[in-house]
Amino acid sequence: MGWHHELLIGFDLETTGTDPTEARIVTAAVIEVRGGEPLGRREWLADPGVEIPADAVAVHGITNERATGEGRPADQVADAIADVLTGYWKTGVPVVAYNANFDLTLLSAELRRHGLPSLRERLGGLDPAPVIDPYTIDRSVDRYRRGKRNLEAVCTEYGVALDAAHDASADALAAARLAGAIAERYPKVAGLGAVELHRRQIEWYAEWAADFQGFLRRKGEADAVVDGSWPVREVGAGV
């Protein structure tokens, strides 16, 4: 049948910014999906403990007033999300996130910020896996396609509906459906087991990072460094 016909866990964060080591969680969603259909979901609204910038509010629609008035403490939200995700990984169920490196690095930074056990600690020293990232896969299998690679654009490319972009639940569901659509188009992706696909994505992401770093340096950014770690970037002690 292939991994894309089995249970997948869509995951998405909406946040205060674009730097995963500095931004804070505002909303989060984890959705169980099988055959493209949602089976159940968990959603969180956090009080991030910092002001949500106006440009971030414009993206996801969560105001400071709502976050502080209705949101749970940030440490409780990060802890709950980590527990849910690691629960799936412990049973071998893939977690699907579009641009997973951003979401998982940000979650890891939040855990460290609040003095909570890391994902690896919750997994007994193992790395979080398997992770399926349609962004990384699409960039590898259709490397030279022109145009944007954001979630909306790639969903359009593969005929996946995205009803409310930048809503955590909608994006999480779309990511899971997109993973399935890519697998349907590319049998070589569908034919890999989830664990092997995870390993391949580590390689693909590192290759992309090296290529992009080289591009930046050729354009004059002599000191440019693009971290090739996937699916979680190492989070420093200062976050």
UniProtKB/TrEMBL annotation:
GO molecular function, a single term: 3'-5' exonuclease activity
Alphabetized UniProt keyword annotations: Exonuclease, Hydrolase, Nuclease
Claim: Nuclease is one of the keywords in the record: yes
CDD domains: DEDDh
Any one Gene Ontology cellular component term annotated for this protein: cytosol
Cross-referenced SUPFAM superfamilies: Ribonuclease H-like (SSF53098)
Exonuclease domain ranges (all copies): 7-188
InterPro entries: Ribonucl_H, RNaseH-like_sf, RNaseH_sf
Protein name, as recorded: 3'-5' exonuclease
